[in-house]
Amino acid sequence: MADSVPVRCPTCRRENAFTPPTFPCACGAPLTMPVLRGGVPVEILHRTWQASWVEVRCEACGRQDQWPAPESGCVCGTVVRIPVVAAPAAPPGVPDSGPPAAREPAAPGPRPAVLRPAFRPVTIRTARDCVTAAAQYLKWLGFTDVVRTQERAAAGVDLRGTGVVAQVDPSTRSTRLREIECVWLNGLNDSAIAVFFSLAGYARDARARADALHLPLFVMDLTGTPQPVNDPADELIKYGATGR
Predict the structure, then answer these.
(1) CB within 8 Å of 243: residues ≥ 6 apart
(2) Beta-strand relationship, 159-161 and 164-169
(3) Is residue 108 domain-resident?
(4) Which residue in 8, 65, 82, 89 is a FRET match for 53, CA 20 to 30 A apart?
(5) In the prediction, which pLDDT does 242 show?
(6) Region annotation Disordered: residue ranges (predicted)?
(7) What is the pTM (predicted TM-score) of this model?
(8) What is the mean pLDDT of residues 32-37?
(9) Are 62 and 145 members of one domain?
(10) What confidence tens digit (pLDDT) does each residue in 52-111 have?
(11) Rounded distance, CA 162 to CA 236, Å?
(12) Beta pairing, strands 22-24 & 15-18
């Protein structure tokens, strides 16, 4: 795990410990965001696609690629973007992923919304019921081969299917940022869409990161009916598995 660095909130001046996230490079090596020590964090007031990504070079293979810009949330509610060490120019013969715009999905043409029968919820009484309800919901969305995983404790994934991975948080606390990043990385590794279901909702920084990563978030009530809480979730409901 990367060492934490102090980050001072520009709003309340509180100093928070921040651990730089680590992502898997295409070469398989772990790539930890090279946070600029002493850099001044910038409060996020308006999000843009380009500002949400930073260019970082893998020390193992030299590949230069675009990764989610590291962010940190303060207890006062402020969310800041943490500056990183700028990537040097790519040397000859080293692959370069291109500008951030190359990672942005092309605007899709008009797509018809998927017509499906009403969802039949599963009443939630236990943590296991939460996972069952989420599995039924994903099948309703068109991921028909979704199954419960056995390695959830190690991998951070409760459900897998063709083109989808999902995590379910049945606890009574808000889902945290690290859990969002974990399921997103699982989706990245599997070339699948990552989806999150939470019983108690999401911490502010977790919600912000999911929006930046275009990761669908749902909250569940005790009736077992997931409700979308961000635009990616709305899109998933509208187009289902066939629209991904």
Answers:
(1) 111, 114, 235, 236
(2) antiparallel
(3) no
(4) 8
(5) 74
(6) 90-112
(7) 0.56
(8) 86
(9) no
(10) 788 888 888 888 888 888 888 888 888 888 888 876 655 555 445 444 443 444 444 556
(11) 15
(12) unpaired
